[in-house]
Specification:
Length: 865
């Protein structure tokens, strides 16, 4: 230490307290970084690495960013998951004896950003804290610092913790340093969040009003960790934090993370974009806060019939009130993000333009309330009555600010005349001075006869009289003092001009000072309204989401679902909302789904690409849409309320956790089987596909039987294993349905229509044909198929085999396995069986024609041996 200069010693002392952050050390107009921070930041931010003498024998690596453009660099580091400690000079360098005092004024972390790119309008930015009580019981608290919303809940397994955190998309998790290493590892690996440590400290008095609803000691520990961390890092009063709300995960429909992803509720599987998701389809919200609430509703569908019906009734009324709805939409468009604004008021980073926006937003409220009263629905009227337009605040802002104030709050020009007497005096003085100068220009022009004479101003010389060189000779007799000579003119001053200048500048200085003081005062007054603004924001968001449901439902012709307590599920003319929107809706083939206590499970068969998973997803999406209170894409819908939805759809490798497709498949299956109840909905798409045929089929059958016997959840199970359709004979609550396809001129044409009974064959080769594999290969595959069809059926289902009730769509060939086939005398030997297996395992759609040719060639060679 001793070797370094005092400033570097100061740097090192501060850095020691912020080891896990980049320390932005204010030096004049720059934030500088030193040592390792500098080397690392210069790479990450692509800025030049230099060095500086710090007193030691070696020069110290250094890099820096200008103060005025620091925000963009900070954002970049935060996006990458790092933290940035902002260290400012906390005394005037002119007054300082020795090294200027410096202090960290804020630690910006991924979970605590308040502005900039890291914060998306329609997304919350959550920071969570996790407290582990003992093995497998956890309490989670979280908060969106930008909106002040905070909640807490208790969870009973790491899996649940992961689920909640990924639903919330928490960016940062605060933990006590003694949290088990195993849990830390899982959090890091599975969620890629920033982990931050906070020592458990006693509760502070200041938290009392925030945690009054939280009684469970473990939840209090979690919230306490969170609040201590926020105060330690943000170093300011966080008056906008809302009282922590306690919730339980089973108050809502549970949809685990895998299922949310599979159903593409808020983002698509492939591109991870909102576009193409249910959220994208539904998002007709007009405000940012409504957008965030919509996402929250989709993440947590309701399970309480009364609450669902309340929402549905409001949507219904709004749907029919077409004109009112359009007016509501227009008004909402003018409503600014009140919730985040309240946060920024508390944080102290608003300017007068924000406050004008606040005023304009509030001015919408009285008319909005009146409009809502015109709609005949108790809940909507209650919503209107609860909205407080905060008139006092509107008046204050109206009186205080001019309509178009400058961006900066430190250059005056914000406050309206008549708001403050002393300020008005300074303004007068400044205006009078300026008028005097304008008059002077006129007088001097007349006196000298120089028409181009003008009085200008710059920061260095103040006011001056400017004369072009050509006119200088006309100045004889003037008492002008020469001040500056330019290429084609000269600038002069006079004692009177300077006198006025002093008056004007003093007045301006006073104006700037006083306006800033008044601004801070008004901002403090706005602070007092934060709870009202937050409540208003909640009501406006709710209205926004409901009008959004009405808007989409009308546009896309959705209908109100009926929710019942029975075991019946009836969807007539149902559609997949997103697929329908993406394709021309004229072409979408609607389908029915009918389930009840005799039809708890549907086994869906049909060719690849015929629409099996679309059908299954549409049933799940319909249920979810109904339970968030939206109308549904169907002609008629009567649904039970599902407590949970599980899916196993598609073959997305979980690359992050490094698990294979098949492992993910099995994990998802396990998840459903361990947690589903008879009130749940399970979708299994092609389970068992990731392994060899017999293996896969055996597992699929066992899973179906297990659900049928032990769970009795409503289940849709699609499979390309035709052999499974015979299960209808032995399992009383399982029914076969299939997606129909017909052959026309040897080609398969998908009708996308769901019908009763099992499909007649699997059409795999036809799909290969559609994918335009070489003709020769297709012919050969047909030949092989024909040969195989003459041969054997697998042993697996032999003992159960009864005539199936399949419905044949075409008069095409008999299917491979599902028809009782005369077993030919010549059984394939072991080698042939293996070859058949191999052929069957080929995923033709994934092969290039050349690969397929080669594979076929090898198979044939083996057969000929
Ligand atoms: P499968 O699961 O049987 O392989 P998908 O459900 O993935 O088939 O559907 C394949 C494609 O067929 C979809 O991408 C969609 O374009 C189209 N499709 C599915 N269902 C319908 C339908 N009901 N109406 C029109 N097109 C549909």
């Amino acid at each position: 230490m001793e070797q370094y200069t005092p400033m570097i010693r100061q740097y090192l002392a501060i850095k020691a307290q912020y080891e896990d952050a980049f320390l932005f050390f204010r030096l004049g107009d720059f934030y500088e970084m030193f040592f390792e921070d500098a080397t690392k930041a210069s790479q990450l931010l692509e800025i030049t690495l230099t060095s500086r003498d710090g007193g030691s024998s070696e020069r110290i690596p250094m890099c820096g960013v200008p103060y005025h453009s620091a925000a963009a660099y900070i954002e970049q580091l935060i996006e990458l998951g790092y933290k940035v400690a902002i260290c400012e000079q906390t005394e005037d360098p002119k007054q300082a004896k020795g090294v200027v005092k410096r202090e960290v004024v804020q630690l910006i972390t991924p979970g605590t950003v308040m502005e900039g790119k890291g914060l998306h309008d329609k997304e919350n930015n959550y920071i969570a804290a996790l407290f582990c009580e003992n093995d497998d019981t956890y309490s989670l608290a979280f908060c969106d610092l930008s909106t002040g919303e905070s909640r807490t809940t208790a969870l009973t397994a790491v899996e649940e913790v992961l689920n909640e955190l990924s639903t919330l998309r928490a960016k940062e998790v605060v933990i006590a340093p003694d949290l088990e290493e195993e849990v830390k590892k899982v959090l890091k690996e599975r969620l890629s969040v920033t982990l931050s440590h906070q020592d458990p400290l006693p509760e502070e008095d200041g938290f009392a009003s925030l945690i009054k609803e939280v009684s469970a000691p473990a939840m209090r520990q979690a919230t306490n960790l969170l609040f201590h961390y926020l105060h330690r890092t943000q170093k300011r009063s966080l008056t906008h934090l809302q009282p922590v709300e306690v919730y339980e995960v089973h108050q809502f429909m549970k949809i685990d993370f895998y299922s949310k992803r599979n159903l593409e509720l808020t983002e698509t599987i492939r591109s991870k974009n909102k576009k193409g998701s249910l959220l994208w389809l539904l998002d007709e919200t007009m405000t940012a806060m409504g957008g965030r609430m919509l996402k929250q509703w989709i993440d947590r569908p309701l399970i309480n019939q009364r609450q669902i019906n309340e929402r549905l009734s409001m949507v219904e009324k709004l749907l029919h009130a077409f004109f009112e709805r359009q007016e509501i939409r227009e008004m909402l468009k003018e409503v600014y993000d009140l919730e985040r604004l309240a946060g920024r008021v508390a944080f102290g980073n608003v300017n007068s333009r924000d406050l004008i926006q606040l005023k304009k937003s509030l001015q919408q409220i009285p008319a909005l309330k009146d409009l809502l009263l015109r709609i005949d629905n108790d809940e909507i009227q209650a919503l209107s009555n609860k909205m407080n337009p905060c008139e006092e605040l509107t008046d204050l802002l109206e009186q205080a600010f001019v309509d178009n104030p400058p961006l900066s709050v430190k250059e005056g020009g914000m406050i309206r005349d008549g708001f403050h007497a002393e300020l008005d005096e300074y303004k007068d003085a400044s205006r009078n001075g300026k008028d005097w100068i304008a008059n002077l220009q006129q007088q001097e022009r007349e006196r000298t006869g120089i028409k181009s004479l003008k009085i200008g101003y710059n920061r260095i010389f103040g006011y001056y009289i400017e004369i072009t060189k050509a006119n200088l000779h006309l100045l004889q007799g003037s008492r002008y003092e020469r001040k500056q000579t330019l290429a084609n003119c000269e600038r002069f001053i006079t004692p009177e001009l300077k006198e006025k200048e002093t008056l004007i500048l003093q007045a301006t200085e006073k104006i700037i000072e006083l306006e800033y003081e008044l601004f801070i005062e008004i901002r403090e007054q706005v602070k007092a309204f934060i709870p009202e603004l937050q409540e208003l924001s909640r009501l406006v968001s709710e209205l926004d989401v409901l009008q959004c449901f009405a808007e989409v439902s009308e546009k896309r012709q959705y209908i109100r679902p009926e929710l019942t307590d029975s075991r019946e599920l009836v969807i007539k003319e149902g559609r997949h909302p997103v697929v329908e929107k993406v394709m021309d809706s004229q072409e979408y083939v609607p389908n029915d789904c009918f389930m009840n206590s005799e039809r708890e499970m549907l086994l869906v068969t049909g060719p690849n690409m015929s629409g099996k998973s679309t059908y299954m997803r549409q049933v799940a999406l319909t249920a979810i849409m109904a339970q968030i209170g939206c109308f549904v894409p169907a002609g008629e819908a009567r649904l039970p309320i599902f407590d949970q939805v599980f899916t196993r759809i598609g073959a997305a490798d979980d690359l992050i956790s490094g698990q294979s497709t098949f492992m993910v498949e099995m994990l998802e299956a396990k998840n459903a089987i361990t947690h589903a109840t008879n009130q749940s909905l399970i979708l299994f798409d092609e389970i068992g596909r990731g392994t060899s045929t017999y293996d896969g089929m055996a597992l699929a059958q066992a899973i179906i039987e297990y659900i049928h016997e032990h769970i009795q959840a409503k289940t849709l199970f699609s499979t390309h294993y035709h052999e499974l359709t015979v299960l209808e004979e032995s399992l009383s609550q399982l029914k076969n349905v299939h997606v129909s396809a017909v052959e026309q001129n040897g080609r398969v044409v998908f009708l996308h229509k769901i019908k009763e009974g099992a499909a007649d064959k699997s059409y795999g080769i036809h799909v290969a044909q559609l994918a335009e594999l070489p003709r020769e290969l297709i012919d050969r595959a047909n030949e092989i198929l024909a040969e195989l069809e003459q041969k054997e059926q697998p042993d697996l289902l032999k003992q159960e085999k009864k005539p199936s009730n399949k419905i044949a769509e075409s008069s095409g060939q008999l299917s491979f396995f599902s028809e009782p086939v005369a077993v030919s005398a010549q059984q394939p030997d072991h080698k042939e069986k293996k070859i058949i297996e191999e052929l069957k395992s080929y995923d033709l759609l994934e092969m290039t024609p050349l690969d397929a040719m080669n594979a076929l060639y090898t198979l044939q060679k083996k057969l000929k041996k």
